[in-house]
Design a protein that fits this description.
The complex is a heterotrimer of chains A (259), B (356) and C (327).
Chain A: E1 5-14, E2 17-27, E3 32-36, H1 43-49, E4 60-68, E5 71-72, H2 80-86, E6 87-90, H3 102-112, H4 119-132, H5 136-139, H6 152-165, E7 170-174, H7 182-195, E8 200-204, H8 208-214, E9 217-223, E10 230-237, H9 238-243, H10 248-254
Helix pairs in contact in A: 3-6, 4-6, 6-7
Chain B: H1 12-15, H2 26-43, H3 49-72, H4 74-108, H5 114-118, H6 132-163, H7 166-180, H8 184-199, H9 206-231, H10 234-242, H11 247-258, H12 260-275, H13 279-284, H14 303-312, H15 318-350
Helix pairs in contact in B: 2-3, 3-4, 4-15, 6-9, 6-12, 6-14, 7-9, 8-9, 9-12, 10-11, 12-15, 14-15
Chain C: H1 26-65, H2 77-113, H3 116-130, H4 134-160, H5 177-201, H6 205-213, H7 218-247, H8 250-255, E1 258-259, E2 271-272, H9 275-282, H10 289-318
Parallel strand pairs in C: 1-2
Classes of the chains: A alpha/beta (259), B mainly alpha (356), C mainly alpha (327).
Amino acid sequence: MAKRIDVKDLDIYYGSFRAVEGVTMSIEPRSITALIGPSGCGKSTFLRSLNRMHEVIPGARVSGSVILDGQDLYGAGVDPVSVRRHVGMVFQRPNPFPTMSIYENVVAGMRLNGRGTRKAAMDEVVEGALQGANLWNEVKDRLDRPGSSLSGGQQQRLCIARAIAVKPDVLLMDEPCSALDPISTLAIEDLMDQLKKDYTIVIVTHNMQQAARVSDRTGFFNIAGTGQPGKLIEMDETSTMFSTPSNQATEDYISGRFG
Amino acid sequence: MTTTTTPTDLTAAEASLSQGRLPRWSTPATVAAVVVLGALAILVLDAPVPLVVGLGVLALLVALPALAWVVEGRRRANDRMWTVLVTIAFALALLPLLSLMITVTQNGLARFDWEFLTTDMRGVLGEGGGALHAIVGTLIITGLATVISVPVGIMTAVYLVEYGRGRLARAITLLVDVMTGIPSIVAGLFAFALFSIFFGPSVRFGIGGAVALSVLMIPVVVRSVEEMLKLVPNELREASYALGVSQWRTIVRVVLPTAAAGIATGVTLAIARVIGETAPLLIITGSTNILNTDPVDGRMSSLPIFTYYSYTIPGVPPEFGVERAWAAALTLFLIVMLLNLVARVLSRIFGSPTSR
Amino acid sequence: MTTPATTQVGGPLDQGPPAEPRIGSRNRTGDKIFSGTATAAGITILVTLAGIAAFLLYEGFPALVAAPEDVPGGEGFWPYVQPLLFGTVLAAVIALIIAAPLSIGIALFISHYAPRKIAAPLGYLVDLLAAVPSVVYGLWGIFFLAPQLVPVFQWLENTLGFLPFFEGPTSATGRTMLTAGIVLAVMILPIMSGVNREVFLQTPRLQEEAALALGATRSEMIRMTVLPFARSGMVSGAMLGLGRALGETLAVALVLSPAAVISFNLIGSTNSSTIAANIALNFPESSGLAVNTLIATGLVLFTLTFVVNFIARAVVARRKDFSGANA
């Protein structure tokens, strides 16, 4: 399932404003790639361009290519809807569908494809996804309760279950723990560690300890100033990045001198 | 997650990112084809217009999704059908609305002149005459209604947002809803029933109309002001409290000014909403042919009533009355447009917090 | 607003306002006066509604207890009001059936389909038409719409004449129950689509993105997030529309050519009138018990709209659990 992503010379624009410039990177399958950098450096925008979610903002466009195991996500005739089917996403704040139960939340993506409507098969997927998200034991007795009845950390794990229930190739996480308390954060981090056995995971985080704890590789984004495009400054093994970065800006950021 | 085959595994088509897609021109081309066919049916076959429009809509509803089904698959077809449905709904709604504007403008312009705006109907039977008395009456009645409704409405909203808790607040919220749904004619009957107790069954005066309109206007004001007050971030209130400012001063100095543009917009729209009310005024202000500027003494005409009677009792010969009816309708329409414009400008100038 | 500014039920006391400083007790007084005034304004609403019911009952009561032969029509109050009630509900239901789907479509078009740049002006246009006076709609209904609809009615009679709604004979003027229903639908469209648009736009961005990130198309995203989120809002929009249609007076009074009948024939020339239109047509020339009778019919209309509002409220409250208000 897990696939590798190769990004080449990617520029991202909102209208005439260039938000991200010249990103080239490789994202390995079955690993966690962390993207760090100061606010507004374009790391979230870049993450969203990996499943074309940035296109929900009118006027967004890209140049360059994002290759998912040989297929260009921005190639001619590619449907953003099917891209998102392959590249799942977990958001900054937990966002279970409030009008749906826990069960319905997990099968929401599956229902879109009009298959898996047999009850037994769906039950199996729900249990699998919730177990995969370390949530099954906490919610198995109340699957018909609204998703919004869970705690914040549980909601976020429900969102992860919802994302993996459609068996994507890649899982994008946009600061998934920024709205959670430390204990819930730890639970999500443990979960990511398990999930990387099956998925390619890309996570944007503001928390450098988190990047150091969970990721295999780390990319550092920065901007020269307001109104300038964000750029990928450096990318390397996480251990290298945090011990001996080759770029001065990276070292300044990691050692907390700015950002 | 090393699962075996489950119902979600991808079909070959889905595993590929690029499925068949219709070219961009396919939709405009289909629409154009249907429009041309429809025009031919009307011009050549002399088919009734509404029928052709209906069939054309149906044709689009079938053709666009069917094309998508063949080329792009079921889900895309479904998506297209929604797009077509939604767009057609919008177009269908605009049709009557645009035709209404055109009809009113066309018919109204015939008598929309200086004489119409500056004379009343004293002694006029056929040609000539004007709506001065009705315009003045409308302004007086609506003005009074505004004077009554705005303070009550704003304070009620303040109560609901800033103070109201518990049963009383819940009851008032519910009743504001109920009041929003009061038929306008019932408001007129209420004003009549109220004043006829004191002044007898032949009571007709402007202030009664103002009371009736207030019944309709207060809930609208409450609603819009309530929305605006809720948009004021709690942080602002807390910041003010933290400075030791009392609650009422916080409301007067911080909350209300922050929401001022929104409140002004809401009030203007509420005025626009009631200025065209006909039914309650038919009951309680009656109609007269002459200018009356005293709201507590005797019948007072107003633009909607003038429109109504000019059409239903047009006089001899009838076409002059009907022309006056359309001119009055146009005047009313322009006033309402103007009020909406003012509301829009207000929210532009002050930057409504609701702008999205 | 003469209610004394003392403590009121559910007043500021329950809320636990921020602790007042001990110094400056004049602020305390200011608070009391202000909150008292606000509470009094709220209570004005209660009093007004109670007043409407009370005064209508007081003035309408003589008609309810009068001898049948004294009431207009000569058969008593209930036989008098029945065809009117029927006509009121029929016209409003036709309007709602037409307007409900259309208003959702219009609102979705503006909120989720139209390009951003033209969405705001389009919304403004629809808002503007919410304020068109009913008497203008009435004139438009008679002069423009009714003649346009005659051939359509003819066609309906020819093809669907086996249904009681379209059995004909078609009215030559087009001033029929269906025309009235369509005019009402047009009138309530702006208000309903306005409400729907507002609630559609309030759908949390995060919800919509969650659906899109799962690979939903635009329509699927709307069905998964926007419509469920907006359900109670749509009900209250429909409630507003229905209430307006039930009570709409002048447009119906102008468009319909009424008779005291109960008929499901929507395209014929004999139609039931509505309560509101009947009052408008007859009130100015009535006196004595006839006035009381009309007021009593007004009370019936008031009760009807009250009940409709109440049911709609209950529907809204029932799904609070899943409403997503806390999202």
